[in-house]
Amino acid sequence: MGLSILWFVLTLSIYGFYWVYKTHEEIKRYSRNGVGGVIGLVIFIVISPVTFFVVPSEVRYMYEDLDGARSPVRGIYGLWFLLPIIGHVIWFVQVQGALNRYWESKGASPP
Predict the structure, then answer these.
(1) Phi-psi region of 32 (alpha: psi -120 to 50; beta: other; left: phi over 0)
(2) CA–CA separation, 111 vs 95, rounded Å?
(3) How many Å apart are CA 99 and CA 80, to the nearest integer?
(4) pLDDT tens per residue, range 50-74
(5) Alpha helix positions (H), the chain
(6) Cα gap 59→27, rounded to integer Å
(7) Domain edges within the chain
């Protein structure tokens, strides 16, 4: 997670485009639900605040609808984007942390 934040800073936010594409694509491939990588990236480019709501909603779907577990994040977490910089960091840490824990529960090695 810390490495992702570092890449985001070092690449002057360009890593964010990759992260959005990859995250949406992995969720779509695994759950067969969600917008997928290309559409997720287009949403991020055209109306980026929507991404802050869509990603946690898709994570919630995997936790609750696929596994019947309680999700640590929900779409409402997108409101963190209203706080400049610190809100984005809080959002990212919560969402990426939830994703990491989910993939680890499916047998992926920890990042």
Answers:
(1) left
(2) 14
(3) 17
(4) 999 999 999 999 999 999 999 999 9
(5) 2-10, 14-31, 37-46, 51-60, 86-105
(6) 8
(7) 2-105
